[in-house]
């Protein structure tokens, strides 16, 4: 029979695994992930231009950064654990619908931040966060892009088209007819693509007051109603 020492009795695999990583390095990685996550939170809130701002989604960006860093720290010291973690994470699906493509950019940014923080690339994370934040703030808030709008008008009198064209030409920089259809009951519907002056949509009130106009709707190409 082999001799069992006192150390063998109290031997713990958990303590052995704990000694394989540095607590200080782990804290630094998590704190940096939290700090950069706060920066992502600020940039997202500053540059958000969608319909409804989601505070919970913005908070989740911070948690994603820290949770991803925590996973990378855990699997970096154990190859077998990393393989098992990859298999476990492969069954996870993000089922929340993403309506704005920019939200995917922020999700990817948060995940990359967590990966790099967990791997110890602190300087790279900070430099990358600063550059990405500057680009997002610059292109979102400073550079103005004229987005085209669709103007859909329903009317009952075909002779009204000249008045419509005149009213639109007085308020739009550029416009063109995209489609025209005749509805049941001899009603007409015409769709214009327009670029308004300084995003001014008040002229739609003048169109709706024209005799024979049943409805007037102006919407952007991303489906957000402006009037």
Structure description:
It contains 9 helices and 4 strands, in the order αααααααβαββαβ. The chain is of the alpha+beta class. Strands 2-3-1-4 form a 4-stranded antiparallel beta sheet. Helix 3 runs antiparallel to helix 4, helix 3 packs antiparallel against helix 6 and helix 4 packs antiparallel against helix 5. The longest helix is centred in the N-terminal third of the chain and has 25 residues. The protein is elongated. The N and C termini lie far apart (88 Å).
**Unreliable stretches:** 223-227
N- and C-termini, Cα separation:
88 Å
The helix/strand order is: HHHHHHHEHEEHE
Main sheet? 4 strands, antiparallel
Strand content: 15-25%
Helical fraction equals 40-55%
What is the number of helices? 9
List how many beta strands DSSP finds.
4
Biggest β-sheet: strands ordered side by side in the sheet = 2-3-1-4
Structural class: alpha+beta
Computed Rg? 29 Å
Q: Which of globular, elongated, flat, extended, rod-shaped describes the shape?
A: elongated
Average per-residue pLDDT, rounded, comes to 76
